[in-house]
Amino acid sequence: MESGVPASPVNAVPPRAWARGQIRFVVEGALDGAPLFRNQSARERALDIFSHLRIWDTAHNNGVLIYLLLADRDVEIVADRGIDAKVGTAGWEKICTEMETDFRAGNFERGVIKGIEAVSREMAKHFPRAGGGPNELPDVPVVI
């Protein structure tokens, strides 16, 4: 399910330098196979991926998935309870909307970078970096 992406400006955004939070960025070209046959929404798919990649399994319950369903230019953010309680649905929706606006304008790279930076700022606000700590989740984007 998971493949690495070579170095790019997306990899240049170092969320770990800002906060103790854990961010995973996942791009899926289009729904096919079982998700398509089950008529799964982008949100439901994002929840499945959040679980599959064990983004919920962090010490501070602050894992965040930024999921991009490329075919629909749909962005979903799924956050673990620790960070979600601080940012809330409205905060995540605002970030998604800003990313989707850039995508509709054809500014995919800018939208991705701005989205990761926005999530990183929320992490830094609520889970500021305090000394070294383990990187609990891989930083490399995932392409499905």
How would you describe this structure to a colleague?
The protein is an alpha/beta fold. The chain has a single domain (18-128), classed as Diaminopimelate Epimerase, Chain A, domain 1. Helices cover 43% and strands 15% of the residues. It has five helices and four strands, in the order αβααββααβ. It has helices at residues 15-18, 34-37, 42-52, 81-104, 108-126; strands spanning 22-28, 63-69, 74-79, 142-143. A four-stranded mixed beta sheet has the order 3-2-1-4, with helices on both faces. The longest helix is centred in the middle third of the chain and has 24 residues, at 81-104. It is globular and about 40 Å long. The model is unreliable at 1-16 (pLDDT under 50).
| Low-pLDDT sequence parts | 1-16
Could you say which structural class the secondary elements and strand pairing correspond to? alpha/beta
Kindly state the number of beta strands: 4
Shape: globular
Give the N-to-C terminal Cα separation: 6 Å
Radius of gyration: 14 Å
Outline the biggest β-sheet: 4 strands, mixed
The ordered string of helix (H) and strand (E) elements is: HEHHEEHHE
Give the overall average pLDDT: 82
Oligomerization status of the protein chains: single chain
Strand order of the largest sheet: 3-2-1-4
What's the level 1 CATH class? Answer: Alpha Beta
The proportion of residues forming helix, as a percent range, comes to: 40-55%
As for the CATH topology, it is: Diaminopimelate Epimerase, Chain A, domain 1
How much of the residues is beta strand, in percent?
15-25%
Number of helices: 5
Total separate domains: 1
Which architecture per CATH? Roll
